Amino acid sequence: MPPESPEALQQAVSSLKRKKKPVRRDMEKRRQQNVQAQKKYREKQRQRLETLKAIAASAGQNHANEIPSHIGLQQLNAAAQYHTSIHIERVCIAAALYTLVKYMGIGEETFCADDSLSPFYRPSLEFADDATRNRTIGMVQQMYKTLKPDLRPSAEQILIKHHPYIDILPFPTLRRNLIMHQKEIDEDEFLNDTLIGLICWGGVGKARNDTDNVMGHTAAETAWDARSWEAKAWFLKKYWCLLGGEDGELVRQSEWWRSVRGEELKLDLVDLKS
């Protein structure tokens, strides 16, 4: 093969130079590009947060109640734990219940599966003698002593097979009655009713546009405490017996919240029982 002419070699070299990608050696330029990329990312996140805040502010007009100015000092003193608050936020019920699911260490798949069993339930006790049952109940309750008081398992939760949705409700009387009468209850209907019939009052004295409130973090501070909950009148009427009547935790607490708002201290028990 005859040697290529100098002109041909020069053309080949020029072609290779054109095809070869330039190597970035300017470190300052690369740093500036990274800074700009991070700035764009932070701006995007800020816009997302602002959108969430706008949604929360809009929802807050319907889901946050302020303490009326006509309530006297005596009524506020009756609610001493909240006397420094200007308004009390209403936590999204779905967020509150989800917080309880996580707090109890129940996985999402487990909670949503129809055939899931409570982590407290001990099937081996079904045919055990009384001494063994009592001993095991004590051991299980000791194991879960670190749970918040309103969520610690009762004997029924340990002895009787049931779905874990019952375990996340911070009302011992309601949990016990749900377990004892679970064959008579439509679980889906009951859970749907809790989403629209219950109110969970959140952090006290926090600004309504607080980032934690927007993200639902206030639920973690209150959902496990029965004192944070209130039920609407129709919910009390529908589940009066399951709630334990006048002595049920949720019934008593609902009356307490009504008193804070300056409403009648006693619900219409005659109407509720009818």
TrEMBL record:
Pfam families: DUF3425
Positions of region (Disordered): 1-44
Coiled-coil residues: none
Name of protein: BZIP domain-containing protein
